[in-house]
Specification:
single chain, 325 residues, alpha/beta, Peroxisomal Thiolase, Chain A, domain 1, five-stranded mixed β-sheet, 9 helices, globular, FabH, transferase, multifunctional enzyme
Length: 325
């Protein structure tokens, strides 16, 4: 069950007007197409691990205990290709020699890592797990690409899961997870991995996205996965109090809600202030929604995400009485 919650954003804020000074864009263009007004960006020298440590510390404080048996880090921007970044996060948090590993499902990473953490607990391999979603995604972007630079920001969000009873507030699940590797080219950084370590074309080292196709797949897949989770949970659309989707684009969120038949006021949205923070977006939205009173204990919450891979998934929970750290 969900027992702790925390988030952290880099202090540097880049608003749309600042981007407009070096990109062929404008505040109106960005807001109309994405719903984003600003994003937080890492300064040189700040890393994914740095952000994950800050968010993790807050989630542990929220949980009221530092006693965790494992740490799962959802990220597509590890500090190094090898080793994984999660052990460094655990070490800096002073958690001892616990199990720690990365999960890379990009913008679906939080949902995938939640399922992984819940599975560790269900299998008896852990009684409590710190799960962090953190990405310095702006480090993957071509600074001249107006199709991606306005969309993404950096940040970290974290939760603590602990063993509990299925009828407790905060109990996680059911989960629904999927992928389609045939469409990997829709969102990709071509170079840097084992297949193509380097490239003479600088563009190959930057993230690229086929926006219209991603929009279609994101809305269809998030809605499909959400329906599956509602059916498994025994919920109807009218049972859902809040829908927390990956904060990729305000139009994707509204289109997904419309496909599901959910009212617009059920959406939890903070993208205007954060941009798309990849694996951090859902927990950061949770933090804001608790702090502003949008999320209340007992609310039936539907969570869904879509990302590169392609990957997508959903889960559901009754919201616990929790205060972010």
């Amino acid at each position: 069950m969900l027992a702790g919650l925390g988030g952290w954003l880099p202090p540097r804020i880049v608003d749309n007007d600042e981007l407009s000074r070096h990109l062929d864009t404008s505040d109106e263009w960005i807001r109309t197409r994405t719903g984003i007004g600003q994003r937080h960006v890492v300064d040189p020298g700040m890393s994914t691990v740095d952000m994950a440590v800050e968010a993790g510390r807050r989630a542990l404080h929220s949980a009221g205990s530092r006693d965790v048996d494992a740490l799962v880090l959802a990220t597509a921007t590890p500090d190094q290709i090898c080793p994984a970044s999660a052990p460094q996060v655990a070490s800096r948090l002073g958690l001892g020699n616990i199990a720690a590993f990365d999960v890379n499902a990009v913008c679906s990473g939080f949902v995938y890592a939640l399922a992984t953490a819940a599975g560790l607990i269900s299998a008896g391999a852990a009684c409590s797990v710190l799960m962090v979603g953190a990405d310095a995604f702006t480090t993957l972007l071509n600074p001249k690409d107006r199709g991606t630079v306005p969309i993404f920001g950096d940040g970290a969000g974290a939760v603590v899961l602990r063993a509990g009873e299925p009828d407790e507030l905060g109990a996680m699940g059911p989960f629904d997870l999927h992928s389609d590797g045939d469409l990997a080219e829709l969102l990709i950084v071509p170079a840097g991995g084992a297949k193509q370590k380097t490239s003479d074309n600088p563009e190959d080292h930057y993230f690229s996205m086929q926006g219209p196709a991603v929009f279609r797949h994101a809305t269809a897949r998030m809605a499909e996965s959400s329906r599956t989770v509602m059916e498994r949970a025994g919920w109807t659309v009218s049972d859902v109090d809040r829908f927390i989707g990956h904060q990729a684009n305000i139009r994707i969120l509204h289109a997904t809600a419309k496909q599901l038949g959910l009212p617009a006021d059920s959406l939890v949205v903070n993208i205007e202030r954060t941009g798309n923070t990849s694996a951090a977006s859902i927990p950061l939205a949770m933090v804001d929604a608790v702090n502003d009173g949008t999320l209340q204990a007992g609310d039936r919450v539907l969570v869904s995400a879509f990302g590169a891979g392609l990957t997508w998934g959903a889960t559901a929970l009754r919201w616990p009485d929790i205060t972010p750290g």
